[in-house]
Design brief:
CATH architecture: Up-down Bundle
CATH class: Mainly Alpha
CATH superfamily: Nucleotidyltransferases  domain 2
Shape: globular
Radius of gyration: 15 Å
Structural class: mainly alpha
């Protein structure tokens, strides 16, 4: 994998995290939870690309975390978001409609987990952000 691909995954991951936060402000609590999941999925796939590994076409972020051999506590945190890939979107996986299952407190917790994961993994991607800034300065 190239850094160009990794940067694309990372930029989308950061955007998804930003949009997750914005959805809380407008009451899109289910969408915020989904985007928290998506931000971590894309972050982990970016790290796989940085490491030169193939990016699997899966959405199980706990499995991606294990593939990266992340710390067990971090895998546990990431696992808290795994269910939101389906639970936040599909009305047939629960007794209730997804948007009825989420509230501000739940969505804030999901976004906090995502932010904490980003912070914990910063060592993996910070150089990539610096590289991107330098490229932008040379354009």
């Amino acid at each position: 994998m190239t850094n160009k691909i990794a940067i694309k995954w990372l930029k989308q991951a950061l955007h998804d995290l930003e949009m997750a936060e914005k959805n809380i402000a407008i009451g899109g609590y289910d969408i915020a939870a989904f985007l928290a999941h998506q931000s971590i999925e894309k972050l982990l796939k970016s790290i796989l690309a940085i490491q030169g590994k193939k990016i699997p076409k899966v959405h199980y972020i706990d499995e991606l975390a294990k593939q990266l051999k992340l710390d067990n506590d971090l895998v546990d945190s990431i696992s808290e978001l795994t269910i939101d890939y389906t639970f936040s979107r599909y009305p047939d996986v629960s007794e209730h409609i997804p948007y009825e299952e989420y509230n501000e407190e739940i969505s804030r917790e999901k976004v906090k987990i995502a932010k904490d994961v980003f912070e914990s993994l910063k060592e993996f991607y910070s150089a990539l952000l610096e590289e991107k800034k330098e490229e932008g300065a040379n354009d």
